[in-house]
Amino acid sequence: MKLRIYIIGFLMALISGVQVKGETKKENTKTVLLINAHLTYPGLSEGTLNKSFYEEAKKFFISQGYRILETKISEGYDVEKEVEKHMQADIIILQTPVNWESTPWIYKKYVDDVFTSAMFSKKFLTGDGRAAADPSKQYGTGGNMQGKKFMLCATWNAPEQSFNDPSQNLFKGKTADDALFNVAVNYSFVGFEVLPGYHCYDIFHNKHIKEDLEQYPAHLKKVFKL
User: Fold this and answer.
1) What confidence tens digit (pLDDT) does each residue in 163-219 have?
2) Burial code of 5-23, b = ≥16 C-beta within 10 A, e = fewer?
3) pLDDT of 90-131, one tens digit each?
4) Are 158 and 201 a contacting pair, CB within 8 Å?
5) In angstroms, how far is CA 73 from the centroid of its own chain?
6) Are 205 and 158 in contact (CB under 8 A)?
7) Residue 154: helix, strand or coil by DSSP?
8) Could you point out which of 97, 146, 161, 205 has its C-alpha 20 to 30 Å from the C-alpha of 199?
């Protein structure tokens, strides 16, 4: 009788341990939100290249055991669901073409919709960081999203040589990340850590797009330390 009780107790403890271990693994699974900001212009910009980079990132994070959330802005979105995706995500990757030196307009609208909703609900931030009682508190430090990471991947008509060179007329020595500062800074404002982006340049003349795609996972592995 005592032996039976001992065996039953041992088995229950073993089962309980397996359940706890499984729950811990599930809780430790990280989440990445992939956002595709491409807007189709028939005959000019069909979205094939941005889709390729998007799918490359998706494949990479699946291989690393991440849970994948996806948003393709041109297909429509529910604002509150997008807020929740941001809350769940440990990493956000924005895939975007550069249209007239910025993202397509649908991405700006997406940010206005999602971030404004999350501002009113105080999910992304609880203020702009400043405090009348403490002048040392800086603007842009009121975010609630610390510990999360943001990275953008952009496709450019501009050649790589137009960046990082003060003699260049347009960007005057700026990096590609500098040129898209207005995109990433929204995430900094709410507490994200912004990581170095990945850029595919001169896309209408680039003979190395295949290599750019092949090298993308290595960049992801490096910046996210995976």
Assistant:
1) 999 999 999 999 999 999 999 999 999 999 999 999 999 999 988 899 999 999 999
2) eeeeeeeeeeeeeeeeeee
3) 999 999 999 999 999 999 999 999 999 999 999 999 888 888
4) yes
5) 14
6) no
7) strand
8) 146
The model's pTM: 0.85
What percent of the chain has pLDDT above 70?
Answer: 88
Q: From CA 197, how far away is CA 187, in angstroms rounded?
A: 13
Question: SS3 of 188, please?
Answer: helix
Tell me 74's DSSP state. Answer: G
- Which two structure tokens, joined as six digits, stand for 37? 């900001």
Residue 209, phi then psi, degrees to nearest 5? -60, -40
Cβ-Cβ contacts under 8 Å for 98 (sequence gap 6 or more): 154, 155, 156, 157, 158, 180
Distances in Å between the Cα of 221 and the Cα atoms of 7, 32, 175, 218 are 47, 14, 21, 5
Q: 10 Å Cβ neighbour count for 184?
A: 19
User: d(Cα 101, Cα 180) in Å, to the nearest integer?
Assistant: 8
First to last CA, the chain: 52
